[in-house]
Amino acid sequence: MQDDDVTGATVAENGAEPRATGYSWYVLTVLVIVYILNFIDRQIVSILAVDIKADLGLTDSDMGFLGGAAFAVFYALFGIPLGRLADNWTRVRLLAIGLALWSTMTALSGFARDQLSLSLARMGVGVGEATASPTAYSLISDYFPKRQRATAIAIYSSGLYIGGGISLFIGALIKESWNAAYPGGGPLNLVGWQAAFLAVGIPGLLVALWVATLREPVRGAMDSAPATSSPRPFRNLVYDLSTIVPPFTVIGAFRRGWGALAINLAVGAAMVAVAIGMIGVTDNVPQWSAVALGYYAVFSWATALRAQDPATYRLIWGTPAFIATTLGYGLVSLVAYALAFWSAPYAETVLGLPKAELAFVLGANGAVSGFLGVILGGRVADALRARYPAGRVLVILFGVLAPVIPIWIGYTTENAFLFYTMNFLAGMFGATALGAAAATTQDLVLPRMRGTATAAFFLGTTLIGLSFGPYIVGQISDWAGTIVDGRPVGDLRTGIVSLIAVTPIAVALLAYAWRSVPQAEATLAERAEAARAPGRP
Question: Does the model's pTM come out above 0.85?
Answer without folding.
Answer: no
